[in-house]
Structure formats: C-alpha cells, structure tokens
Amino acid sequence: MRKKTAKTTIEEPEDALQTAGDGRGKAGAISQRKKLKAQNSKMEQQLELANRLKEEYYKQLKKTQMIVKECQQDADEARQAKENVVTVLKKSE
Asked: What is the pLDDT of residue 31?
C-alpha cells in the first residue's frame, strides 16, 4: 500500500512537470525538477528512519519474547515443584 502511495506521490509531480514544461517553459520544468528532488530526498530520509525504527522494534520484540519464554519456564518449574510437594504429602499421609 505504501508503494502505491509513493508511486502516486511521484506520478502526480511528474504530471505537473509535463504540464509545466508545456506552459511555462524550461524555468517551470527546472522548478518542478527541484521540487521532485526535494520530495525524493525527504521520502528517502523517511524510509531510512522507518527502517531504523523497524530494526529497533524487532530487537525489542526479540528481548520481550525471551523474557516471556523465561517466565513461562519459571512458571512450569514452579508448577512441577508444587505437584511434587503435593505428591510427597499425599504419600506421607
């Protein structure tokens, strides 16, 4: 979906560039080209930021998954210990 939006964002200024080239001549085309380059640069920066954030969130997710796994193991061990105590108490009665 982002690709489609980005493509549309690029296509619209390209259409404007063609129109500007027809109506205002070379100066309009140069102006539109500068605007397109600026938009492209901004979009590249946003993409880089999004990729860095994605990597950071992925690392946090992995850490959280490890913590959950450790907690589950601790809970399983506690449950097993409780069952062992209950079994020993029943046998001692």
From this structure: 92
